């Protein structure tokens, strides 16, 4: 009898154990399908977060501006370095702009600044400053930053030493004009808008006639000679204000004359 009861107990326990290993009858929820049209940011939230974190390292105005505006602006160009000067060997020859080099004009050569453009150059040894027009490329010797015309070097008191420590600050034509007028007044000179310089009087006269044909103010031709090389400069003026200069420049641009520059010359009687 005891054996029969023991056998029944074992069968009962086995039935309970078998019931426990049956598959679950609980409802099965399939995984949510991924929408292939969803953005990569939605599928990869960590990547999206990483991009956001990168963005906050930029200045707010830097993000909002177009890529072109992130480039260095010419008007902010300030650099110190060594300047040299060039004169007699190049006087009367063409510059990178195509105009004729005049060693007595306030010009300079630079490797990267736009041509034409203006710059304020300061001699760091005596604090003297001049305004020059960038109209040529160079210098390509050593670590020099600027090649000044003879006249610019002389005004900076650099012509004897040949080189000097300088600071270059790019400025706009409207910024350049007041400085040029101030220098001209101190030297009893006037400021003119020069529209061309030639090694041929015939070419200078042709440009003068073109200006007259378009109902513009009468142009004057000035000449300067150095070692048998004579240059003929076509100029308008004198220029008394920035507003007058802008108006005149706009009229000249309509007939294709855009490569102009401010120059100082002795007063005409």
Q: Spatial order of the strands in the main sheet?
A: 1-5-2-4-3-6
Along the chain, the helix and strand elements come as HHHHEEEEEHEHEHEEHE
Enumerate the spans where pLDDT stays under 50 for 5 or more consecutive residues.
13-72
Alpha-beta classification: alpha+beta
* Beta content: 25-35%
CATH architecture descriptor of one domain:
Beta Barrel
CATH superfamily of one domain: RlpA-like domain
In helices, the fraction of residues equals 25-40%
C-alpha Rg, in Å?
Answer: 39 Å
Tally the helices: what do you get? 8
Round the mean pLDDT to the nearest integer and report it. Answer: 77
Apparent shape? globular
Main beta sheet = 6 strands, mixed, barrel
The span between the termini is: 150 Å
> What's the CATH class of one domain, please?
Mainly Beta
How many distinct beta strands?
10
According to CATH, what is the topology of one domain? Barwin-like endoglucanases
